[in-house]
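STAT6 protein
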Amino acid sequence: LRLVAVLRAILEGEKAAVLKRDHHLPLSFHRRQEELKFSVGLQRLQHRVREIQALRDGPVGEGPGQDGAGAAPQELPTLILEAVKELEAIKQQVLKRIQIWKRQQQLAGNGAVFEENLAPLQKRCEDLVEVHFQLQQQAMAASAELGPELLPRLLERFSEVLSSLVKR
C-alpha cells in the first residue's frame, strides 16, 4: 500500500507538471491566434492577386516604364507561383481546422463540450474559394506569359486545392 501511495503521489505530480506546462494559455488564446494567422494569410493572398492584376494591366509592352513594369513577363510567373504556394498553405490551415472540428464533434459523443457553430468555418472556406477563383482567373488570363508547360501544372494545383476542400 505504501508503494501504491508513493506511485500515486509521483503520478499526480507529473500530471500537475504536464497541465502546468501545456495549459498555461487558455484555449481561446490559441483559437484567436489561429484566426489571426488565417486572416493575415488570406489578406496576403488577396494582395498577391491584386499585384498580379496590376502587373498584367500595367504597360507591359511599352518598355521599362515606371517601377520596372517592362519586366512583367518574367515576374508574372514567379508571382503566380508564390501566390499558389500561399493558397496551398492557407488551404492546409483550413483543413486542419476542419479536422479539429470533426474531432471535437466525435468527442462530444463522449460528453465533451462542443461548439456546433459552423459559420466561422464556412466563412473561411468561402473566403478561400473566392480567392482561389480570383487567382485561377488571373493565371488563365496570363496563360501566354506562363507558357504551355507551367499552365497545366498550375491548373492541376488549383484543382487539387478545390477538390481537397470539397472532399473534407
